[in-house]
Amino acid sequence: MKNAAVACVLILLAACASNNSVITEGGSQVKVRQIQTRTYDTLDKRDTLRSVLATLQDLGFVIDKADYELATISATKLQDYQIRMTVTVRERNGERLDVRANARFNETPVEDPLAYQDFFAVLDKAMFLTLHNVD
User: Fold this and answer.
1) Is residue 84, in this structure, part of any structural domain at all?
2) Distance of CA 113 to the CA centre of its chain
3) Which helix (H) or strand (E) holds 53?
4) Structural domain tally of the chain?
5) Of 25-29, 74-78, 83-87, which gets the smallest average pLDDT?
6) pTM of the model
7) For residue 48, is it within any domain?
8) Neighbour-count burial for 15-50, b at 16+ CB within 10 Å, e otherwise
9) More confident: 23 or 43
10) Which domain holds residue 60?
11) Do the domain assignments include residue 55?
């Protein structure tokens, strides 16, 4: 009985310790989310999703799934490695759209700001062309 009580206390302590590390990592998660997100001055979700789709294709990704209702696009790029990218478009304050890209290299989340800067640089150009009706 005493061993069971000790085991329960150890399990509770381990759970508390793991929760603290998640809370501590929250600060870095906010930074990663900021790197992954860009805001655009438009409310045209459909055109924004088309621009995201074109950007992913221009970067060599194959579209796995595009859901205009959920405003998400998932794509994969295969070379000597595998990169999976999921992009979500959301309305922000009824004035703008947030585009958030989330990439994985093989099974590891990509947190390098340069990877997202490259994606958004191409998307910025596509958004400019789309918003100004340039073909």
Assistant:
1) yes
2) 12
3) helix 45-58
4) 1
5) 25-29
6) 0.75
7) yes
8) eeeeeeeeeeeeeeeeebeebbbbebeeeeeebbbb
9) 43
10) 36-131
11) yes
Of 15-24, 35-44, 54-63, which range is least confident?
15-24
Mean pLDDT of 2-21: 33
**How many angstroms separate the CA atoms of 135 and 130, rounded?**
8
64, 105 in Cβ contact below 8 A?
Answer: no
Per this entry, what is the length of the chain?
A: 135
Query: Which amino acid appears at position 16 of this protein?
Result: C
* Cβ(74)–Cβ(85) below 8 Å: yes
Strand partners, 99: 38, 89
Contact, 130 vs 50, CB < 8 A?
A: yes
Which of 42, 47, 76 lies closest to 59, judged by CA? 76
pLDDT at residue number 135: 63
We report the CATH number of the domain holding residue 111 as 3.30.310.80
d(CA 19, CA 14): 9
The overall average pLDDT reported for the chain is 81
Tell me the pLDDT tens digit for each residue of 120-131: 999 999 999 877
Q: Can you tell me the distance from the alpha carbon of 97 to that of 121, in angstroms, rounded to the nearest whole number? A: 17
